[in-house]
Write a structure and sequence with these properties.
The chain is an alpha+beta fold and about 475 residues long. It has helices at about 5-10, 20-25, 35-40, 45-55, 65-80, 85-95, 105-115, 120-135, 210-215, 235-240, 320-325, 330-340, 355-380, 390-415, 465-470, and strands at about 15, 20, 30, 155-160, 180, 185-190, 195-200, 225, 245-250, 255-270, 270-280, 290-300, 305-310, 435, 465. A hairpin with a 4-residue loop joins strand 6 (about 185-190) and strand 7 (about 195-200). It is globular, with a radius of gyration of 25 Å. The protein starts with a helix and ends in a 6-residue tail after the last helix.
């Protein structure tokens, strides 16, 4: 939702039969610490212990338990320290109230990060996603929520290579090639606003088709997947049919189509919309030729837009709905921007695969909690969740959490210094330290679109190496 639409929504807001003025919206206070409370409530020590026991093979219990590791990495995402060593020294000395209390040396943490398999974090993220599904509001893309009567879920699918690791990290300074720490593939829930399914892949150059096949088992049957043209192959449509999954992809030019019959043809403002029943692929390699719908919007001004879907019944997904729904695919690109730029995932604190994956999954869980809190704040304010800017919300949330932690730390010191006095704690949720005015986190309209920042790897892929090939712990 654009800033103008968000403000218009604010003006139209009605509460208890009265019109809420823009001034009331502007000055409404919202509590920003709810996202961290969600993390602490869901990621409990008992949950981490269950995950650890389930996956444990040769791992030993140490001072840095799975729960302590998760809490520390989540704090790293929230507070973005200069270095891990600085954060660990603050935690050990008791100076930093934002870090978990673990009485070990920094070296013990680095060894644990290097030796503990990242698959513990992957399993924890998966269970975290299942629990959050019951808690999260359907606050995003509300104009398309009627589709939940036709499909189990709607997921946006896309992958992204993680940013190159800088050579400042010890062990990589002498490596001439660009070192890629891995890649991720996300299944973004269109209506909850986060990725409950996210796969980390050590091989940064592995094909996106293979990555997708590894996460398909986690997607509920009857779901609709929306993705770019790279996935539009006859083979994948065949796999999706076997798993009872639906898809809406841009058409790839290399995929041949044989027309069966035309379903409909409509003239729309700006062009003509055609809907064809087709058979995809040539079948020369032994694969079946799946029956699909080929939706084409022909425009002299905008050019042609072609989509393929295995939803054969137009009553389940019409051509107009498919064309409008595909525009939401850019939300998954926003996900990658949020976790890389807003949550600082473009910077890695350690030069081994396990630590990189831990940081990735910590960022994903923090993003999930943040978007859930964002949706709740928007619902309480009576506006759409898209009206709140993630780029404004997250740094203010992190600052509010830090202020509250410092106040609580001071209150604890006062209580310890006055053991004979019974001190009453304040209502922490009512403190201004954890709140901001709603207008401070709303999306602002752009006067003109600035050039997009290119987050892709600049160098030739042949000059890149995956981090798991350079370290001996990539297969743990």
């Amino acid at each position: 939702m654009s800033g103008k639409k968000a403000k218009a929504k604010c003006r139209e807001l009605k509460t208890e039969g009265r019109i809420v003025s823009p001034h009331e919206i502007k000055n409404k206070k919202v509590n920003l610490s709810k996202a961290v409370e969600i993390l602490d409530t869901v990621i409990t020590e008992s949950l981490c212990e269950t995950i650890f026991k389930r996956l444990r093979t040769k791992e030993r219990r140490r001072a840095w338990s799975l729960h302590a590791m998760v809490k520390f990495w989540n704090a790293v995402i929230l507070h973005a320290p200069v270095s891990l060593r600085q954060a660990l020294e603050e935690a050990g000395s008791g100076e930093g109230t934002q870090w978990p209390e673990v009485e070990t040396s920094p070296e013990a943490f680095f060894q644990r990060s290097q030796n503990m398999s990242w698959r513990f974090f992957a399993a924890l993220h998966e269970e975290f996603g299942r629990r959050m599904e019951k808690l999260a509001d359907l606050g995003f893309a509300q104009e398309f929520q009627y589709l939940l009567k036709r499909f189990s879920q709607v997921y946006l699918i896309d992958g992204s290579t993680l940013d190159a690791i800088k050579r400042l990290l010890k062990g990589l300074r002498q490596e001439p090639a660009t070192v890629l720490p891995g890649s991720i593939l996300a299944a973004y829930d269109l209506f909850r606003g986060y990725a409950p399914i996210l796969g980390f892949f050590e091989n940064a150059r592995e094909s996106e088709m293979r990555r997708l096949e590894t996460i398909l088992e986690k997607i509920p049957q009857g779901s609709l997947l929306i993705a770019d043209r790279i996935y539009a192959t006859a083979k994948l449509f065949g796999i999706l049919a076997e798993k009872n999954l639906y898809a809406l992809f841009r058409r790839h030019a290399s995929l041949s189509l044989r027309r069966i019959r035309r379903v409909s043809r409509k003239r729309l403002p700006g062009g003509v919309l055609e809907d064809w029943l087709v058979q995809a692929g040539s079948g020369w390699n032994g694969t079946d030729q799946p029956m699909l719908r080929w939706i084409i919007f022909r425009s002299k001004k905008l050019g042609d837009y072609e989509f393929l879907t295995n939803v054969l019944d137009p009553r389940q997904l019409s051509a107009e709905e498919a064309m409008e729904l595909y525009r939401c695919r850019w939300d998954v690109e926003r996900l990658f921007y949020d976790i890389k730029e807003v949550l600082n995932l473009h910077r890695f604190y350690a030069g081994n695969v396990n630590a990189v994956a831990m940081q990735v999954y910590a960022a994903a869980m923090t993003h999930t909690a943040m978007r859930t809190a964002q949706s709740r704040i928007a619902r309480q304010a009576g506006i759409g969740a898209e009206a709140i800017s993630t780029a404004k919300f997250f740094p203010r949330m992190a600052a509010a959490v830090y202020r509250r932690q410092m106040i609580k730390f001071g209150a604890q010191i006062i209580k310890e210094m006055n053991p004979e006095v019974t001190l009453k704690e304040p209502h922490w949720d009512r403190l201004n330290a954890g709140s901001v005015r709603l207008h401070q986190i709303l999306v602002e309209p752009r006067k003109e679109s600035p050039p997009r920042k290119d987050l892709r790897i600049k160098k030739n892929k042949s000059a890149c190496k995956s981090l798991h090939l350079l370290t001996s712990h990539g297969q743990n």
